[in-house]
C-alpha cells in the first residue's frame, strides 16, 4: 500500500476534507482538515479517520498511523 492509496481511501470516506498523507510501507502520517471535525472531541475525530482505514488496519496492510485533524479555522490559526 502506498500513500496515494491511503489518501484515496480517506477521500472516499471524508468527502470535502483536505487530506495529506506521508509515509510508506505500513506506516503513515495523516493530516485531515475539514468542517466534519467541528464540535467533535479528539477521540471522535480519530474515529472518523480510523473508520475509513479499518479494513487495511485489520489486514495488516497499515500498521501504524499518526493522525492530526483540524477544522479549517484551526488550520488557519496555525500560521
TrEMBL record:
Top-level taxon of origin: Bacteria
Listed Pfam families: BolA
InterPro entries, alphabetized: BolA (IPR002634), BolA-like_sf (IPR036065), BolA/IbaG_stress_morph_reg (IPR050961)
Stored SUPFAM superfamilies: BolA-like
Family recorded in the similarity comment: Belongs to the BolA/IbaG family.
Entry protein name: BolA family transcriptional regulator
Species this protein is from: Kineobactrum salinum
Amino acid at each position: 500500500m502506498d500513500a496515494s492509496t491511503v489518501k484515496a481511501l480517506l477521500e472516499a470516506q471524508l468527502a470535502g476534507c483536505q487530506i495529506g498523507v506521508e509515509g510508506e510501507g505500513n506506516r503513515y502520517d495523516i493530516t485531515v482538515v475539514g468542517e466534519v471535525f467541528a464540535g467533535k472531541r479528539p477521540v471522535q475525530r480519530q474515529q472518523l479517520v480510523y473508520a475509513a482505514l479499518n479494513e487495511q488496519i485489520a489486514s495488516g496492510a497499515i500498521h501504524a498511523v499518526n493522525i492530526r485533524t483540524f477544522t479549517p479555522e484551526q488550520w488557519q490559526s496555525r500560521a
